[in-house]
Task: inverse folding
């Protein structure tokens, strides 16, 4: 039997836990993090919790004194131990409690931690490139909340359904300026003559933990990386394109529509990072 952690209590994973008046259910009032656990380590945990705390402040949660990053880390570890996991995807959901739009019972966080086992080779650099498409029926706003991992994910939800119905691996989400934001599950990078480009947070993309990791570490490896707005035209002129998220640190994109991409620089990036961070870039 698998378990989940609901506000510090380990209960069977199929247990009903949400009241019909819950603000997370009614309004999407909350945040989430998806964290990779491997070889006894919660990968990029500091980046995940820093982003989460920024989100809690932005959404005006009232954080109890004992509700700390260390406390949540212990609660995640408790669930991992209970479910006897060695390699897993961890989802940490933070929602507010019951109440209407103007009259919440309180502003305290309620948390749910779930886990799913992963295959040992999950997250390896893919040899069969991804095929992407553009999704334009919903756009990503560029505001104070657009970079957060909040629970209002309609553009990503509909983009994922669009990608599946069009036999694509993922869909590229556009922002209010009709430029590139990200994809439904990842940040996006393009490579032009060896230089790496990715949209800045002001363009509405999620503040991905792996995105930040690459921004911090790729220049130290000798790679040029630039945060700049990306148009569809610029993206389609790229030599190479790749995606990143916490579960799959580098994913090669083979094609967007009819445009195909190589992966020589991507292989160099992955090889360089795997030498220094083998636990992450397996």
Result:
């Amino acid at each position: 039997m698998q378990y989940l952690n609901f506000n510090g209590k380990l209960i069977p994973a199929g247990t009903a836990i949400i009241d019909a008046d819950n603000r997370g259910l009614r309004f999407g009032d909350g945040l989430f993090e998806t964290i990779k656990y491997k070889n006894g380590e919660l990968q990029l945990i500091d980046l995940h919790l820093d982003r989460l705390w920024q989100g809690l402040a932005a959404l005006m949660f009232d954080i109890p004194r004992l509700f700390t990053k260390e406390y949540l880390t212990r609660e995640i570890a408790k669930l991992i131990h209970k479910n006897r996991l060695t390699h897993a995807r961890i989802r940490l959901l933070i929602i507010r409690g019951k109440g209407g739009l103007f009259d919440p019972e309180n502003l305290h966080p309620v948390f749910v931690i779930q886990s799913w086992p992963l295959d040992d080779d999950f997250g390896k650099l893919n040899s069969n490139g991804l095929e992407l498409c553009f999704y334009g029926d919903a756009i990503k706003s560029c505001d104070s909340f657009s970079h957060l991992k909040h629970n209002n994910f309609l553009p990503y939800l509909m983009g994922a359904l669009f990608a599946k119905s069009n036999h694509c691996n993922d869909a590229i989400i556009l922002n209010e300026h009709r430029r590139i934001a990200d994809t439904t599950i990842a940040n996006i990078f393009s490579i032009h003559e060896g230089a790496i480009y990715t949209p800045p947070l002001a363009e509405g993309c999620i503040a991905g933990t792996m995105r930040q990791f690459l921004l911090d570490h790729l220049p130290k490896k000798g790679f040029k990386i630039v945060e700049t707005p990306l148009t569809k035209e610029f993206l389609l002129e790229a030599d190479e394109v790749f995606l990143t998220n916490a579960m799959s640190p580098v994913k090669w994109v083979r094609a967007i529509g009819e445009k195909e991409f190589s992966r020589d620089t991507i292989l160099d990036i992955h090889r360089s990072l795997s030498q220094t961070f083998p636990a992450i870039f397996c």
Notes: The chain has two domains: 3-117, 130-276. Residues 84 and 115 are 10 Å apart (CA to CA).
